[in-house]
Amino acid sequence: MKEIRFFYVPEAGKVQELPTEEATHALRVLRMRTGDEMYLMDGQGVFYHAEVGMTTNKKCFYHIRETLPQEKTWRGRIHLAIAPTKMMDRIEWMVEKATEVGVDEISFLNCKFSERQQIRIDRIEKIVVSAMKQSRKAWKPVVNEMTDFTSFINTSRQGTKFIAHCYQEFKRDDLFRELQQLDVDEDVTVLVGPEGDFSADEVKLALTRGYRSISLGNSRLRTETAGLMAVTMAQITKRKE
Amino acid sequence: MKEIRFFYVPEAGKVQELPTEEATHALRVLRMRTGDEMYLMDGQGVFYHAEVGMTTNKKCFYHIRETLPQEKTWRGRIHLAIAPTKMMDRIEWMVEKATEVGVDEISFLNCKFSERQQIRIDRIEKIVVSAMKQSRKAWKPVVNEMTDFTSFINTSRQGTKFIAHCYQEFKRDDLFRELQQLDVDEDVTVLVGPEGDFSADEVKLALTRGYRSISLGNSRLRTETAGLMAVTMAQITKRKE
């Protein structure tokens, strides 16, 4: 049985040619030839069944055989905003896993106790695209540039907003229970802090902006594990049958 | 504020000396001295508040000030049996994350389509201990040597047993919903297959041994993500308030 190959082609329905990197992969690595079958994903909800058309040394054209609109497998939008970890590989695996599990948007926060102020969004994008292809997600998660905490929470957002933190002095509800009580179509945003947590002032500020104070359970989780836990909880409560 | 240091000392209540590696870490890296405070975890449910006693070049003795029995934070035992991935780093992070999230036992399966037949249990043990310390788990997850699939499923086990797979021809129930319907104190074992899944014969055999056929949802998950998802679902349904 020949393996089905998926390629990420933004605007796949409008162009007739694989993007450079995907073309190189198709021609050099997979050695695909005219007439070979392939699937294209536009990252916006549509798969295309296609076949390789003309090829040159570096270019790979295609013909679309069939347009296959996909249905979203969960309800509402899941947005994770997280302070990147000091070790880049930890946040990278979180991004890969969150994409596999199912997330709509990932933002990176620059907080008072952040151990990393910069992040290479091009690397993150590559990981997201690769995980999206591997797990056959029809929608590419949106990845946002690093934002200051204050500017992030001052931006108005649809849906219900949560801030996960470890301060005992602010009453914290359990995220999973809160999610179960929401309308399933409700959009959610969850904030996860850096290794040293949000500052108490950041938590207070978020509360004044309508963020709900939550806990992810009684386990002491690393930042990247907390991020994935938040996405997983949202996914479990929002996925379709 | 001085950071609280945790050390893993099996039988901490019976011996009076840190194991070699922990002693090196305490003396060489943390430069701890006589009278310094420390916490010991025996991996069997007890923390000890202790202080450094006599030290030599390589040895670190301690006095216990207080014995602090811990309460388990979830009900029933969670056992994950998984085929290790071809890439060792993938199964290693899964082990780290499963320990953080909360698991009681991890077994490794040698299956028909396994891409890895051997695993260095000493490396896995180190990762488990490190994650247990980092996440302050009072119980060390049990780690078992690689076992053949058939011999694993022929061993009788307490509680409810599940096998996660991707075959459409066997009816699959949703693991999360099944877990929610169990008595919260029930022990659970979940089997997760290799990159190429279990063979159909392996699934059939498991069904005859009382394993229930389950799915982890409608996402296409990598082996290591599936393992963590199973543990997370069990944890969410079994954790105490």
UniProtKB/TrEMBL annotation, chains A, B:
Subcellular location: Cytoplasm
GO BP term, pick one: methylation
Main location: cytoplasm
Entry keyword Methyltransferase: yes
Catalytic activity, as annotated: uridine(1498) in 16S rRNA + S-adenosyl-L-methionine = N(3)-methyluridine(1498) in 16S rRNA + S-adenosyl-L-homocysteine + H(+)
Residue span(s) of domain Ribosomal RNA small subunit methyltransferase E methyltransferase: 77-234
Keywords in alphabetical order: Cytoplasm, Methyltransferase, rRNA processing, S-adenosyl-L-methionine, Transferase
Record Pfam families: Methyltrans_RNA (PF04452), PUA_4 (PF20260)
Gene3D superfamilies documented for this protein: 3.40.1280.10, Hypothetical PUA domain-like, domain 1
Family to which the UniProt record says this protein belongs: Belongs to the RNA methyltransferase RsmE family.
Name of protein: Ribosomal RNA small subunit methyltransferase E
Species assigned in the record: Hallella faecis
